[in-house]
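Support request, priority: normal
Reporter: lab tech (M.K.)
Component: structure prediction queue

Hi team, I submitted a job for F-box domain-containing protein from Lolium multiflorum yesterday, and the status page still shows it as pending. I've pasted the exact input below so you can check whether something in the sequence is tripping the parser. The sequence length should be 299 residues. Please let me know if I need to resubmit or if it's stuck on your end.
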Amino acid sequence: METPVACWIERLPEDLLVHVISLTSPADAFRASAVSRAFHAAAESETVWSRFLPCDLPRFAKNELTRKPPSTKKGLFRRLSDEPVLLPHKFVRMQLDKATGAKCFTLSASTLQIKHFSHAGNWIPVGSDFDNSKRGKRFLEAARVRCWQGLDIRAKVQPKMLSQNTTYMAYMVFMLGDRFYGLDFPFQEASFGVAGRESRRQVCLQGYVEDGDAADDPPRKHILQGYQSRRDTIPPVDDVQFPRKKTHGWMEVELGEFHTEEGDGEISISLIQPAHGKSGLIVWGIELRSKQQIPAGQE
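Reply from support: The job had stalled in the queue. We restarted it manually and it finished. Here are the results:
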């Protein structure tokens, strides 16, 4: 038996419910479907999902949506938020944040500017155990970076790619190969530049951070022992960003965050370490996520 409140909601004009839901977020619209029959009908409206779908979606690679294309705007939103789609040339892929509708991107190692990097013989295959997207959506290779002359990795992003008025976090996804060393200290410097604003932070690729045993315990940081022992005394790491472990040996390190505004110029991302002996860095790519986005596997 329906409650008086539910009966009252059922009598609201559908146009009003559609308007109210369209002013919320995709996550709220998904939840609204379970409130009542009236809310379900309103939350399925093309008007609602037309508002949540970005009006400036990029051009996709050929055949990305041609097999069983979604028949509704909500279906298209689900398709683009459940699984990434490749852009032309298939070196960049996009996925919508299911909670906010923001456009999120992954830049493959092929798109990065890696100084002193030789393409010959320095690509390794990436298995589906790590990147479990459908085979046609995966980046199949990662770059083995041999950085005797200094580590210098850069990426550039055009602001029109991203959602406006959105805070993004950038992560580099990588792994340490056999006989890694020299990626602990000196620490690497990650920097962001956008519209004349620049931010910098120190990161340590040769280590990882894990949560404390209790909710109020501080995170624990660990520096990994490399193949070649080092005599350097590593300074305190309180202000240094450490990677978090993913699966099958892969890790991700937060490079920084930035907020997009109308009129912003090109966004530059870099990770630099001075010249000295180092080895074992394997780079898969850089992910740009909206700050509200929940990383895959943690929903």
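The radius of gyration is 22 Å. The chain has a mean pLDDT of 86. Let us know if anything else looks off. Ticket resolved.
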